[in-house]
Amino acid sequence: MISDSQTVARPSAPPVAPARLTSSPPPAHVAIIMDGNGRWAARRGLPRVEGHRRGVEAVRRAVRAATELGVRYLTIYAFSSENWRRPAAEVSDLMGLLKLFVRRDLAELDAANVRVRIIGDRQGLSSDIAGLLTEAEERTCRNTGLTLVIAFNYGGRQEIVRAARRLAEAVAAGRLRPEEIDAEAVTGALDATGIPDPDVVIRTSGEQRLSNFLTWQTAYAEYVVLPEFWPDFDRAAFAAAIDEYHRRDRRFGGLSEKAG
Q1: What three-state secondary structure class fits 139?
Q2: What long-range pairs does 217-223 form, CB within 8 A, spacing at least 24?
Q3: Where in the sequence numbering do the catalytic residues fall?
Q4: If pLDDT is split at 50, 70 and 90, which confidence band does 258 have?
Q5: Residues 6+ apart with CB under 8 A from 116
Q6: pLDDT tens digits for range 98-154
Q7: Most exposed residue of 4, 78, 96, 119, measured as fewest CB within 10 angstroms of its CB?
Q8: Do the beta carbons of residue 99 and residue 128 sit within 8 Å?
Q9: Residues 6+ apart with CB under 8 A from 61
Q10: Are 17 and 244 contacting, i.e. CB atoms less than 8 angstroms apart?
Q11: What's the rounded Cα separation, in Å, for the pair 1 and 16?
């Protein structure tokens, strides 16, 4: 369940400095583009599915680390709307891993007070996959700890299109006037409504692309690119990314936050 690039790898980004202790509060929302499963496997002479299996283990580590580090929202790019173009066997393997993850990990997530939210297009999904996604949300809906947002069959542009349609339908039904459509209205019509925008986006494998991920929500997010392939991602890498985030001077198009 990973958004792994199939393009030729670019030179790795400079390594992020090791994590240091900081008194700064953690970012409220961290989003991760989990990239590099296929290349991790290829470099070890293993089938791609083994990279995806190890990627699921990295998801577990990321969820535990987010909780330990005080992150309130963690969004993972599990399966993009473009991933259906991959070979049928690989898609089948990914679907199997998703089912296994939900069946094996849902009870543990629930016990850990993790709330699961799913964003993405559910139209056309098989009934078993759609049922598992609904089960994950319903079982954990009352939990108050970390919110784990799983972007499945997701594309940022497609999400904006769905939001535009919802707003158009509201206008046509007389529930909304065209002049009332503003940034807040669009935000409220997105799949991820009620979830704050990400403070930081982490991408593994050294690639420096957004890949149609949270296109609207990441307008002012900080980007941290890690050289590690996703299966090697662990708590130390997570902490290093947060440490790098704290080094940034966020301006939001205006004055520096540090300028106060």
Answers
A1: helix
A2: 217/31, 217/190, 217/192, 218/31, 220/250, 220/252, 220/253, 221/31, 221/197, 222/248, 222/250
A3: 35, 83
A4: low
A5: 106, 109, 136, 137, 139, 140, 147, 148, 150
A6: 888 888 899 999 999 999 999 999 988 889 999 999 999 999 999 999 999 999 999
A7: 96
A8: yes
A9: 233, 234, 235, 238
A10: yes
A11: 25
In Å, how far from its chain's centre is CA 228?
Answer: 17
Taking the whole predicted model, whether its pTM rises above 0.70 is answered as yes
| Token pair recorded at residue 211 | 């890949």
Q: Which structural domains are found in the chain, ordered by start?
A: 29-157+198-247 (3.40.1180.10)
One-letter amino acid at 16 equals V
Contact 211, 218 (CB under 8 A): no
Rg over alpha carbons for the chain, rounded to the nearest Å, is 19
Place of tokens 């692309």: 209
Q: How far apart are CA 55 and CA 30, in angstroms?
A: 18
Q: Which residues pair with 30 in a beta bridge?
A: 74, 200
